[in-house]
Amino acid sequence: MNSKKQIVEALAKVLPAEITAEQITKLIEKPKTSDLGDYAFPTFILAKTMHKAPNMIAEELVGQMDQTGFEKIVNTGAYINFFLDKAAFSDAILKEVLKEQDNYGNQNEGSGNVPIDMSSPNIAKPMSMGHLRSTVIGNSIAKILTKLGYSPIKINHLGDWGTQFGKLIVGYKMWGSKEDVEKDPINNLLKYYVRFHKEAEEKPELDDEARAWFKKMEDGDKEALALWTWFRSLSLSEFQKIYTRLGVEFDSFNGEAFYNDKMDAVIDTLEEKNLLKESQGAEIVDLSDLDLSPALIKKTDGATLYITRDLAAAIYRKNTYNFVKSLYVVGSEQSEHFKKLKAVLKMMGYDWSDDIHHIEFGLITNGGKKLSTRKGRVILLENVLNDAVDLAKKQIEEKNPDLKDKDQVAESVGVGAVVFHDLKNERRDSFDFNLEEVVRFEGETGPYVQYTNARALSILRKAGDVDFDGDLTLADPEAWDTLKMIQEFPEILSRAGRIYEPSVIAKYALKLAKSFNQYYAHSKILTEDDGRVARLALVKSVTIVLQISLALLGVKAPEEM
Ligand code: ARG
């Protein structure tokens, strides 16, 4: 069922042979208003080859075209306007969706392993809104790529190594206690961390102490490693609570520490290829030819760095997964880091570095201000989710006080609202977070899409058993917009995957929900006999496509709300 293909074929028969089907496909437009048809083809580019005015060309071509399979083909000025045969179109698309169900839109666009580096919070710090973005964007991209034929591998590259652990150990030893940490691990660890930074401003010797503790960690000191292991496992179980609420699972938790024994090999290769240079006692790779600052591989004291671990991780992933591409869902502020990472890999002779893509995203701000762990200006993700769920619950109490499983539905709606809000924005854009706006049941929100789906499901419940086997021709002009959107879904999905952009799906879901609500307002779906089965098939198809879309975003679809 591909109406665009049908148009390309009709055009190819009358256009000069040197214009390829691919070129034709690219030129086809969607008219602004439906009175100009479903698709239009501009003839301007033909003027040169055909030596005629575009509107004459349009008129002439229309005269030559075979109109079977279309309601009509006409010319308007320089455009050829195509009106699809609504009866045939509706029957075909509804049958296809009902047959494919959850598999509707599945494609074989590609195959092979695609590691996705996502979430990757830092141990001993609360998971921030930025890590939420990485988590939900990564999760959604994984689902989209799966539907397109790829095999994603979700990797949580935990920030579980680095000088911050030295700081934490110093802070813990000075101000902490076992009991406090056990009572409220993340908050107390964060407290030591924030206090460390405040006090280190006056007492820089604290920084030296912290460096020394991290060095001990790298040298395998027992006490240092025991504290580290303890902080790590406490943090991880806190993070796990959030992942469970978000419904996100990982294939690997190999964080930075995992690469400790894999960096020597990287440094050896860098040396062999003569890429390491000494600079003020440190080892660097000079990237000035590429207009990038040097990649700092080893500090003066021998300690390795973030990028050293990322080099080891990139190579490990290639060797382990033999990926077709390797994605890193990390904020835009690290774009320089990923440029350097790719550049150094390339210099090492790894041409597959071209398959590495930094899937960057913007900041979530609070009142326009950047959030910062060091300054203690954090929004705790857990609180955000709890507040969202409370707000959802309040609205459910008002709208549907008798609903069963109110708490569970409120959880799906509240958490879903936060996730949806994050994904509906193009990932590179920064946006402000305002809870009231996020959890509204009307407007461009997740709850609006969920609510539309629940309402459509309730129509189907009222309809009882319906046999969809017969003719599903739906001639209602009000249904046309919704039908066409359903048919566009596979194209939307493939676009979302090509540009790694879940917002394409979120925006589509909003549009489809809106279009369906309009249809619902203007049509007697249940009460009129004539065409009832086809109308219900449309309702059913809408629920299928809305549910696929929500699932692709990692948002639940409650049956009632
Ligand atoms: N832990 C880092 C942070 O919070 C993100 C890690 C991203 N992944 C990577 N392979 N560098 O900033």
TrEMBL record:
It is an enzyme of class 6 (ligase). Residues 1-84 form the Arginyl tRNA synthetase N-terminal domain. Keywords: Aminoacyl-tRNA synthetase, ATP-binding, Cytoplasm, Ligase, Nucleotide-binding, Protein biosynthesis. It catalyses: tRNA(Arg) + L-arginine + ATP = L-arginyl-tRNA(Arg) + AMP + diphosphate. Transmembrane segments: none annotated. InterPro entries: Arg-tRNA-ligase, Arg-tRNA-synth_N, Arg-tRNA-synth_N_sf, ArgRS_core, DALR_anticod-bd, Rossmann-like_a/b/a_fold, tRNAsynth_Ia_anticodon-bd. It is found in: Cytoplasm. Its EC number is 6.1.1.19. GO terms for molecular function: arginine-tRNA ligase activity. The keyword Aminoacyl-tRNA synthetase applies. It comes from the Bacteria. A motif ('HIGH' region) lies at residues 121-131. Residues 449-561 form the DALR anticodon binding domain. Monomer. Belongs to the class-I aminoacyl-tRNA synthetase family. This is Arginine--tRNA ligase. It comes from Companilactobacillus baiquanensis. The gene is argS.
